[in-house]
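Reviewer 2 asked us to include a model.

Predict the structure of this chain.
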Amino acid sequence: MKKNNEHKNIDELLATRQVLVVEDDEGLNKLIQKTLRRAKFDCFGVLTGADAITSVKKNPNMVLIIDQQLPDMDGTDLVRNLINHANDIIFVAMTGHGDEKIAVEMMKLGAKDYLIKGYDLTDILPMVLKRVFSEIKTKKKLARAEDELKKLGAAVQQSPVSIIITDLEGCIEYVNPKFCNLTGYSKQEVIGKNPNLLQSDTTSPELYNNLWKTLLSGKEWRGEFQNKKKNGELYWEDALIFPIFNGDGAITHFLAVKEDITDRKQFEKHLLQTQKLEAIGTLAGGIAHDFNNILGAILGYTELAKEDSQPGSTIEKNLEKVLESGNRAKNLVTQILAFSRHDDIDFQYIQPVTIVKEAINMLRPSLPTTIEIIEDIDSATGHIFANPSQLSQIVMNLCTNAFHAMEETGGRLDISLKEIDRCRQDNTTEPHIDTGTFVQLSVRDSGTGMTQEVKDKIFDPYFTTKGIGKGTGMGLSIVHGIIKSYGGFITLSSEPGKGTAFHIFIPVIGDEILHNKDTVEPIPIGNENILFIDDEEILAEMGKDMLERLGYHVTVRKGSLEALETFQNQPDQFDVIITDQTMPGMTGVDLARRMLQIRPDIPVILCTGYSSVISEDKAKSMGIKEFALKPFGKNDIAQLIRKVLDEKS
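Predicted model (structure tokens):
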């Protein structure tokens, strides 16, 4: 604040050119004022030291001409007094005799000059004052230049971006603190070195060649590259590098201003991954609709054939295998849709053994022979409450991460699944987790391992150690969140060069819960009238056969317009409507809406192999009673029919 005030005072002094003449000889005082006014100075005078002090207190922004012999004090005493009131006074000393001691004393006190009264005084004074004001102006410029340099230095030191200055050969002469904080190198470690100590293998030599070619031609270069910190960690920078020229136009140095954009790159990669998943979801949705219709026919007719076979016969056993395989295919489609479209998660009581084995079998063909897979799966592992698709994705994700850690050198991938009992002392790191029996899924690799810094960030959103093109999978932060939603937790052990092991713990569901759940109830039957609509002929015929075996009277229509006409002609003949969603002419939703306008109390069950435009919540908000995903089994549809009919009654 003092520096700002000093600048302001100097500005005012230069603008007004005010001069105060302190001389007790009134005639000489007026003569000096007259002379200085001719020289364009704003001048006034006082006759005593006391008056001078009063004037300076009122206006300190003046140049003073001070006579040594005053009636109330000496000029030296006046100067000392003024210095006590104004820290920085500017004055010229004047005396009638040439006392050398007084001259020396005045100069020590800060006099700009020391003049002897004489016939040439009025000629000399304007020149002296012009020189004084010129010095003041120069001082102002130097002070401002110094202030600007200090501000520039502070800005560079405190800059949120890295700043590097090199000589013509590319040797580093200066780096700011941000550079050191980001890279891990100290100033002493990089001064005199070339910036290529930061280079990583991920940036092509052509980029650096183009960079130097551009700079040496006198132009600025801007671009992005991935550099390497002192600890080996990779990071992204957006760099602006340009040459510095001297007064003759020759390049003397290069200056680089670089911003850390690693987080932005990770976000862009996540966004791209999301877009890929959306594209996969669109493709998967189209495939799922047709595929589920095909599966519906396979599963439906297999179930009917199994009913007609001799109990305990080879045919019945073979058909049971077909049903198992068909249901696995159904679950696979569900997994693809859940992963790519982030569908609502359906938790189930599942035994993880089959899911883990299936995930390993799916992964095995994609791994090179340099990686040995060792399985240790306990088939007696208990049930958990989880989502099969998510669990499969988690296994695939952890195994893929392990593969990338051993991709270059090969190695061993150990996958184990077992039950363990955890007591209170085992839960020191997870005090919020209840003790009891857990399923432990472990995935261990013999790969590169992780530093402590990486382990600290491994569950952060969007964090990845994978290179470009390796993908990010579902992300360990998502894995962590999923396991937590199951009431479990995940631990990690890893050291550089010694591999990595992830251990997932999920609570085992008690036998009493499973016993209550697994109580088999008979398939409900009925004798009501059903209007069944599906444009797939094979599904329409199968649906009719299946429902008639349950005791219902079934009218089949293979088109939505035909079905609407049938219902309009006899709206009271039917007790329930079962319709497909995707049909030519009119969708199942539109058909249901038209039918409900005719008869608001008619229960409608909407069926679909896949739809991106209608969900269960949306369908029910429109008055549709139930929503069934194809392919569905005989028991599934029987339960839904009875549910909507019993609710109506």
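Residues 345-519 form a domain with the Heat Shock Protein 90 fold (CATH 3.30.565.10). Confidence is low (pLDDT under 50) at residues 1-8, 467-474. We have added this to the supplementary material.
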